[in-house]
Amino acid sequence: MIRKILFLSVLCGLSYSTWAQDDLDLLDELGEDSTEVNYATASYKASRIINSISLENTAEGVLDLRISHRFGALNTGVDEFFGLDNAVTRIGFDYGLTPWLMIGVGRSTYEKAYDGFFKAKILRQSTGAKNMPVSLQFFSSMMINSLKAANPDQDLFTSRMGYTFQAIVGRKINKGTTIQLMPTLVHRNFVETRAESNDVFVLGIGGRQKFSRRAALTYEFHYVLPDQLAPQYVDYSFSVGVDIETGGHVFQLFLTNSAGMNEQQFLTQNTGDWADGDIRIGFNISRVFTVKKPK
What we know:
This protein has 295 residues and is mostly beta strands. The chain is built from 2 helices and 15 strands. Helix content is 12%, strand content 45%. Strand 11 and strand 12 form a beta hairpin.
């Protein structure tokens, strides 16, 4: 089911790509002598697709307050009111330091985890005097689990830490369609068994398709390469949702099989399986504030 959804999404994107490329080729011919560089903008409505970082950065001098919520699994039944009796929350702040660099911090109730990250633009999709077909960004984050240790004498601070390194390669194919690839390395300082790897390699794909001026369909899928996780963890994270823009807010409503909201949690500690109905309703709310006007 999931593979069919992804296949159709990619096929749809490639079709748009071919159509859009014809338009871009024509524009290139008409603007062959232009000295202006036209950068692609507004690839997404927010700096996250759903769980994943998107191609879009928080603008310079802008603070983005983000509240993220994931309810329990739908298959817990009526006793847990289909997951609505349980929930995890992350509150975070993202800030655009420069036009090409953003940073962020957050705290999640899941494992009482603290996280921080930075994301830097390396290449920007553009046409005109400078033709760049894709955007490329580098993302890195760190997470610390602050749950109380079962045996404090054997607990090391460093064993609670994990790191994520990710390249984000994507293209805004036309006004409504964006696709990105996300090869990722997650390093965990400590793992429970020898069957698990400290370094976990993951391949991800995500994107959006606008269907009105203020609304868009979003999706993301991450696949963990074999023989890296313990058997209780699912080797994929899949989420699909809708973005709704309402003035200064972006509201994201979605379904996901991941309870955790930072990269280590939803990529390497995921226990939910769509095939078993272990699906969660979730939402993200983004509210931006202009702290410093660009010069």
